[in-house]
Amino acid sequence: MNLVESGDKMGTTIDLSRNVPRLGLSRSEVALAIGVSANTVDVMVEEGFLPRPRKWHSRKLWLVAEVAAAMSEWPEDGIARKKEDADDDPWEMSA
Question: Is 10 left (phi over 0), alpha (psi -120 to 50) or beta?
């Protein structure tokens, strides 16, 4: 078992071998997770295909759940969409 002292005032020990789900990702982790570059993440945020990050002091994090929800709204490849749904969709306009 891999243990480390947490450094808090209560003297808690943390088990590093235990899997803890990630709730937030950095810009580079979002890029890695969806298979694009970090610069592409910035473009996708500006185009509205990814949510804006949350901010705490100077740290920016994307919530995993929000990234997944945004991606579930992306158009599926090869599936025709209704004209009224495609009118304002930049993915459809560029196709």
Answer: alpha
